[in-house]
Structure to design on (115 residues):
């Protein structure tokens, strides 16, 4: 099986990793028009990479994203902020939750997410 992912940003890399984990024998190719893979991840959160928000309810989580709140509520029932935190921690990225509920890598460095 050959899988092409269009876009070398966070969603593209997440999709490529998920594809490879679910189909280990597949050839997975990420196609990006620029030479700057994960460039927005690198600068997000002031270079610290704000991964998600740690609120406990789907309603509160979707409220943190004013655009697309309704659509996100449905998506968050399938894969939510707790799943995001578990996903990164299972891959060796310790996380820290700030007092404002923002979740960052414990290192406070976006490069740990990129790596």
């Amino acid at each position: 099986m050959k899988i092409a992912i269009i876009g070398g940003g966070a969603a593209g890399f997440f999709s490529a990793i998920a594809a490879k984990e679910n189909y280990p024998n597949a050839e997975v190719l990420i196609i990006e028009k620029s030479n700057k893979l994960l460039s927005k991840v690198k600068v997000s959160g002031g270079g610290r990479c704000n991964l998600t928000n740690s609120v406990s309810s789907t309603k509160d989580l979707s409220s943190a994203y004013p655009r697309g709140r309704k659509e996100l509520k449905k998506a968050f029932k399938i894969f939510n902020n707790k799943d995001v935190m578990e996903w990164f921690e299972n891959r060796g990225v310790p996380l820290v939750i700030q007092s404002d509920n923002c979740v960052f890598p414990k290192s406070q460095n976006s490069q740990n997410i990129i790596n």
